[in-house]
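User: Hey, quick favor. My workstation is busy. Could you predict this chain's structure for me?
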Amino acid sequence: MTGKLDQTAKEFCHLVSAYAVAVTSSAIDNLVLSRTVAPAGVLIDEDQKPDITLPLRNKDGVAFGSIELYADPSRPFDEDDHQIAAMFADSSGFSLAHTQEFQSSTGSETQFRQMVEIAREGIWSVDLDEKVTYLNHAIAEMLGYQRSEILGRSIFEFLSADEVEVSRKIFEAELIGKLGPREVMLKRADGSYVWTQVSGSNINNDDGERIGSLGIMVDISERKRAEEALQSKQRALETALDVNRNLIDSTLDVVCVTDDEGRFVSVNRRARDVWGYEPDDMIGQNFRSYLAPDTITPPREKIREFRANRIGKAPFEVKMRHKDGHYVEMSLTLSWNEKHQLMFSYLRDLTEQKVLEERLQQAQRLEAISQLTGGVAHDFNNLLTVILGNSETLANRLSNDQQSRMLAEMTRTAAERGSDLTNRLLSFARQQALDPKPCDVADLLTRMEGLIRRVMDGNIEIVCEGKDGLQDVLVDSSQLETAILNIAVNARDAMPDGGSLIISTANVTLDASNTELGSETKPGAFVEIVFRDTGCGMSAESLSRAFEPFYTTKPVGDGSGLGLSMVYGFIRQSRGHVTVTSEPGEGTAVRLYLPVCEAATEVVAAPAPVIAEDSGNELILLVEDNDLVRTFVEGQLESLGYRVISVENGVKALDVLRDDNSIDLLFTDVVMPGGLNGRQLADEARKLRTGIKVLFTSGYSEDTIIHHGRLDEDVQLLSKPYKRRELAEKVRLALEAGERV
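Assistant: No problem, here it is.
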């Protein structure tokens, strides 16, 4: 500034006659307060006054100093000098002010550039053609280029593909600086991308016209990576929560969470199915309010003990109130979260389990009764064999003594009724010998319809439905007829004032859940026969004991209590299924399920053999452990003309077979003590005597010769008790048949 002033003053001295120029300023800091320029060798006295004094003004006309002119004493100022001096003052003032402003602005720009260069933010400017006109070091490093590689290029070359279209619209709409900061992905020199947050503004000239744009970018890649990692964790957490929520909602257990005061904070959807409440409606309610009153205290004590770690996590039973008022038995398992002070409760509905347990207990009870019944029937049939046979013999011998013959006939009739009773017991015990064959149920019901109507009272309506299209079943038809009659009689007795009995049939398929219990019944195709009456129905207790033998709700003398038990045993022995449903006042429904024949076969009954009672003379080995029966049968066989060797067990029978090879028939009881039953004896006898003929006898069926109600192939059986004629026919049939084992 000083050099420029000196030079200007010297040039002025040559133009005018002045020999000295002095400049002062009070407005411009960079100007000296007083400055005098004179030709060399010229001295100005301090007391000398200037010849001309003129103000120095800037372009706006504001005075910021003055100029003083000293004339050469040998040449005073004239008018022209005054004009030149005025012009000099005007130009000098403008030049001096402009120079100061320029120096001031130059200093500020230098400081600005230094600030921009050391900034960590990326800064660049672009012109109206979107070409980069300036960038700082930070953005060059951010993009991985040298500055010279970026200057002059379009900014769109450094934007990601998705961002180019967005940025073009912003430029075209002149929205720079109006949208606020936004996230932009920039493309680096190596092809990778960097996330930035961009703030922009327009660059305008003095007239307010836009001449470019300025952008400031902050690298937010680390923040984006952290956000993405957080979002990934949140997504994983949300996924895990969704999976857990779905698992919890799909479980068969009610899962709920309660706070330390016992209030529900979470309940899964299963609660709606088990308790009838909407899970959201339960939130905030107390767990104890859903417990049965008689079970509130024990669970509270258990929960306190559990939280105090005095008991384990073993489940215990509680009763929870259903929305409709009844209570549901449930198994409760607890899990306490000490950190969050929350109790997790897992409740399993025990309703179905209780029903299955009850059915299992009933089946086990019936099985135990069945075993006991079979044993009693076996011993009873041994006695009946003797009673029936002897009474028959006495009746024949006392033909001339009418009174004695009548007593013998009464004894025989009583024995036959006893035999019928034991057959019913054996039917319940599933230990009777059945003769299952293909049977057309629709045809059987049609044939029985008249008989059913005859056993019914006149005020009972009988309706038969759905007989068409039924498959054949494999069953002993005579036993099925007896079962149907028993059910019909029970229905009649349940409707003393009249009503309806509806008999319907259908082809059905049972799966494992339908068959419930019992190894005899397998899932598959069945024919269903349903008997529905409109009678008095049964109580829950009566229904649970409906199949027990001798259990009856009828008055004493009106029934033996063996009707349904016989039906139960017969159907189960036939590999079928039977159910009874009933409610007091709502009637009863009995459902029989009979297995469908795997293949239809035509069964041709063999003609009954004509046997002469006294035509035998073969040698028979009789094996019977009961002394009374053995003595009786021995006498009966001898009266028929046979020769008899009798022993009481299988071991002695084998000794006889080893010593005597003339035995024609082995007639043996099936159930015998001594470790060798009738079937085992027959097997050993065949080893000793190939082709020996065998006839079995028994008071009830045994798995040794009967399986699923059927006699094993080529096995002959004479069931106790039997009459003389039945004995003669079976023995003769066994002797005249082929080899039987």
